[in-house]
Amino acid sequence: MHNPLPASQRPKPGAKPITDSGEASEERLGNEQIRELLRVYGLRTSLIRLKVIDALHSADREGRSIGVRGVHAQLEQLDIPLSFLSVREVLKRLCAEGVIALGSDKCYSLNPQARAVLELR
Fold first, then answer.
1. Is residue 5 domain-resident?
2. What is the pLDDT of residues 44-54, one digit of tens each?
């Protein structure tokens, strides 16, 4: 039988099947939207960018902006082992590319155009 998936996407022998819980499919949808956002801005996709943008988007949906420490703390709560310096550098790069803005209160928020890309359904 021919497997239409490329070898890199095929499950490893003995691996547990992936179940499609609502939360997992929601996360994939969010990741796809973040991937599209990065593509629109001409940026490569990386795990740290996905997680940082997701943290900013979560804060934005709650009507708040957060600083470097807030983003780092949120990622730590999710057991995502990223250094404070790495988070700060990603935020600086996203700011330089126009994806996010740094407010006078030293907090970051999504730019309206970036927010619009993430909210497309």
1. no
2. 999 999 999 99
Distance separating alpha carbons of residues 31 and 117, to the nearest angstrom: 12
Domain total for the chain? 1
Q: Are 50 and 34 in contact (CB under 8 A)?
A: yes
- pLDDT digit string, tens, across residues 57-115: 999 889 888 999 999 999 999 888 889 999 999 999 999 999 999 999 999 999 999 99
Question: Both tokens of residue 25?
Answer: 């499919």
| pTM attached to this predicted model | 0.74
- Alpha-helix residue ranges (DSSP H) falling in the chain: 22-40, 47-61, 68-77, 84-96, 112-119
Q: Domain containing 103: what range?
A: 25-119
Dihedral of alpha carbons 35, 43, 97, 52, sign: positive
